[in-house]
Amino acid sequence: MRKSVGLLVGALLVAGLAMAAFANSESVTGQLIDLSCYAHDKSNTGNAHKDKGLICAQACAREGFAVGVLTPDGKVYQLVGALTANSNAKLVPHMAQTVTISGEVTEKDGRLTIAADDLR
User: Fold this and answer.
1) Could you say which of 9, 35, 39, 63 is the most buried, measured as most Cβ atoms within 10 Å of its Cβ?
2) Residue numbers of the domain that contains 74
3) CA-to-CA distance for 68 and 73, rounded, in angstroms?
């Protein structure tokens, strides 16, 4: 029994270290975008979107839709974590602006995410 518990603890420790190895702390600079509208039309990177109004990006972010960072080289990072709390309250005023966000970057199934608490 003790041997089994020891093996289980060791396996969990190795798994935890492996997960940490896949998360890299990075700073990402780019434009804040509404990922929903961007998925429908890649030209929807500003605040105004085609046939949607002048503040579509802010309205969608305020509703809690996913927000991302579009880098100059075309990479898209979905924001997760404390920065997206309260229906993206910290992000709404900065939609369509260029920001720098530092946090843990992970990639799963070709999708990049960045977990962050604050932006510059």
Assistant:
1) 35
2) 25-115
3) 14
Q: Has residue 104 been placed in a domain?
A: yes
Residue 9 lies in a domain: no
25 within 8 A of 103, measured Cβ to Cβ = yes
Tokens of 48: 């105004």
In-domain check, residue 89: yes
Hey, how many other C-beta atoms are within 10 angstroms of the C-beta on 119? 18
pLDDT, tens only, 56-111: 999 999 999 999 999 999 999 999 999 999 999 999 999 999 999 999 999 999 99
- The pTM of this model reads 0.78
DSSP 29-73: EEEEEEHHHHHH-TT--SSSBTTTBTTHHHHHHHTT--EEEE-TT
> How many domains does the chain fold into?
1
